[in-house]
Amino acid sequence: MNGESVGIHEQTEGQYVDLRRVALLESIRSEEQTWDKLAPRWCVAEPAPPWKVCLDATCDCLSAGGALDNLERRHAEDELEAVYSAIPNPERQLLTLAHIMLSRGLVTEEELARRISAVRTRLEAV
Where in the chain are the domains? Predict the structure, then answer.
């Protein structure tokens, strides 16, 4: 994330992550599509979302590959607590991971937006 990006607000740097808000993630945050609200829509009683395992595996793979150390990620998550405090876990962990990856240039906003769109298209087809 660079300071010239249209989607960035607040010029704030943390020790582990760029704390500036990202428009894409802000729009997702405001949708309030948390698992506890979505699960009943699909008549699912499982308390943990099915994507939680993939989220944990992604974090482990990023750490093992040297792209994002687990301890640094946890410190960054702590710094982002104020940004995403209104979001329950594990959605907060997902948004903070996306924020960290954007901040570190591991993914671009445009690429993330395309992937989100593709997932939504698949979900809405069901």
Answer: 8-124
